[in-house]
Amino acid sequence: MRTAEATPGRRIVVILEPGDEVLSSLAEASRRHDVAQAAITTFSGALRNARLIASDTVPADPELPLPESVEIFYTEGVGSGTITRGADGEPVVHVHVALGAKDRSGLGAVGHLLHGETHYVVEIVLEEILAPTLVRRPHPGSSGIPILDVTENDTSPESV
């Protein structure tokens, strides 16, 4: 485990309208407000379609990352995540959602959001993080998937 005290900055309200793509809109909001990194503390709304890293079948090895995705349509739900900057300086939006499909009695789908198109509205609050610097690094315990890490003001036992 690694921990660091976060220094908050501004709160940015993002309201996505019908047809807006979630991830690219969040990246654009980050650019527009010059937010280098943030926590997505509120994410709720309706999506016309969403593609998630998930599976309709039981994975052969639950330890390995899922290599597939599922798409659901006309759904509502909640989520949270982070925005960091990649090596190229561009925003990296990372969102996980829990969604219920309207046509399946609200049957849930949960996972990492790969794409989402706003249906009615998606309401989001970004909490800017001024420090420490957040980065994504591959981690051997995560099958090489880049995970969130901090680079300064680290208070974890390993860094003391």
In short:
With 160 residues, this protein is mainly beta. It has one helix spanning 22-32; strands at residues 7-16, 38-53, 69-85, 91-101, 107-131, 134-138, 146-150.
List the helices and strands and how they pair.
Layout: E1 7-16, H1 22-32, E2 38-53, E3 69-85, E4 91-101, E5 107-131, E6 134-138, E7 146-150
Antiparallel strand pairs: 1-5, 2-3, 2-5, 3-4, 4-5, 6-7
What distance lies between the first and last C-alpha atoms, to the nearest angstrom? Answer: 13 Å
Count of DSSP helices? 1
Describe the global form: globular
The rounded Rg comes to 17 Å
Estimate what percentage of residues fall within beta strands.
Answer: over 45%
Number of separate strands: 7
Mean pLDDT: 90
Biggest beta sheet summary: 5 strands, antiparallel
As a percent range, the share of helical residues equals under 10%
Report the uncertain regions. 156-160
General description of the model:
With 160 residues, this protein is mostly beta strands. It has one helix and seven strands. The strands form two sheets. Strands 1, 2, 3, 4 and 5 form a five-stranded antiparallel sheet that branches. It has a two-stranded antiparallel ribbon with strand order 6-7. The longest helix has 11 residues, at 22-32. The model is unreliable at 156-160 (pLDDT under 50).
Question: Keyphrases for this structure?
Answer:
160 residues; mainly beta; 5-stranded antiparallel β-sheet; 1 helix; 7 strands; disordered C terminus
